[in-house]
Amino acid sequence: MTQATLQGRAPSAPGLMGTALMLAAHGIPSLPLRAGKVPFGNCPDCAGNACGGRPNMKSPGPCQCPGICHAWAAATTDPAVLASPAWTAAWRRAVAVAYHPGGAGLTVVDLDNADAIAWARTALPATRTVQTTRGEHWIYRGTMTSHNAVRPGVDIKSTMSYARYLGPGTGTLTDLPDAVRALAVKEPPTTRPAPRFVSMPARSGGQCPHRTPVFLERGIVMAEQRITAARSAIHATVYGVFLAVLSRHGRCGCLTDAHVARLFTAAQAKGETARHCTEAWNNARTTLGL
């Protein structure tokens, strides 16, 4: 999960607290899950949100209640809490251990079926992978807002969310890519006809100041591949790819008409019109303030 290797398989019920303590030692906030693989209900003082919802379930941070309250917000790395009498009683009833990815500086891309896994293998960089009951968790270093159903069979779990701990997984953690962040971005509606595509003017001498030209070429190739691999939600996929490319290279002046034309060509090969490509590109630029 973190750079330190976590040993062992997913635990049986008697070892759940021990697993939580092991995770805590590696800086991973954890919590017990009850039958149905859901968090324990709030304590009487917090039931029905009577406490005002600490931390009001609208911002990240630990739960201030001594009980196991407020779902993901109860996750902790404090061994005194994890082994307290209230939590010990909960561990006896628990069926699994969960953790708060955002609290550990991680993002989990939850792939729920074979189609989602096949998509990820063509659209996302390889990273640590954990087998789940029906699919896989792809774990990246970095945090973002959690989102469900960003595409068929794909959820994003990071801040203000929890994921089941199913073992250490295999592979090396890689940094959270723009391609995952773009999945959570919804294309804003077009309120007026978008202008025709205008070339990106070169800045800083026309050379990307933060990476080599090889990095840009690799990014364009990956963007083309992601568009080509899309099986559904083509419109949203194209916009997300444009947004990801512009977020990385839109301000440094390294994009040329030839690069943009390649992205437009890939999108049109999937059935997008030239007009939509222009609108999606300009909407992405507007979103990023370019």
Strand-helix topology:
Blueprint: H1 16-25, E1 30-34, E2 38-39, H2 79-82, H3 85-93, E3 96-99, E4 106-111, H4 114-123, E5 128-131, E6 136-141, E7 147-151, E8 154-157, E9 163-164, E10 174-175, H5 178-183, H6 213-229, H7 234-249, H8 257-269, H9 274-288
Parallel strand pairs: 6-10
Antiparallel strand pairs: 1-2, 1-3, 3-9, 4-6, 4-8, 5-6, 7-8
Helix pairs in contact: 6-7, 6-8, 7-9
Quick overview:
With 290 residues, the chain is α+β, with helices and mostly antiparallel strands.
Uncertain segments of ≥5 residues (pLDDT<50)? 2-14, 55-59, 189-206
Helix content: 25-40%
Largest sheet: 6 strands, mixed
Roughly what fraction of the amino acids lie in strands? 5-15%
Terminal Cα separation, in Å?
36 Å
Structural class call reads alpha+beta
The succession of helices and strands, N to C, reads HEEHHEEHEEEEEEHHHHH
Oligomer: single chain
Count of individual beta strands? 10
Q: What overall form do the CA principal axes indicate? A: elongated
Q: What Rg do the Cα atoms give?
A: 22 Å
The helix tally amounts to 9
- Summarize model confidence as the mean pLDDT: 80
Describe this protein's structure.
The structure is a single chain. 34% of the residues lie in helices and 14% in strands. It is α+β, with helices and mostly antiparallel strands and 290 residues long. The strands form 2 sheets. Strands 4, 5, 6, 7, 8 and 10 form a 6-stranded mixed β-sheet that branches. Strands 2-1-3-9 form a 4-stranded antiparallel β-sheet. α7 packs across α9 (274-288).
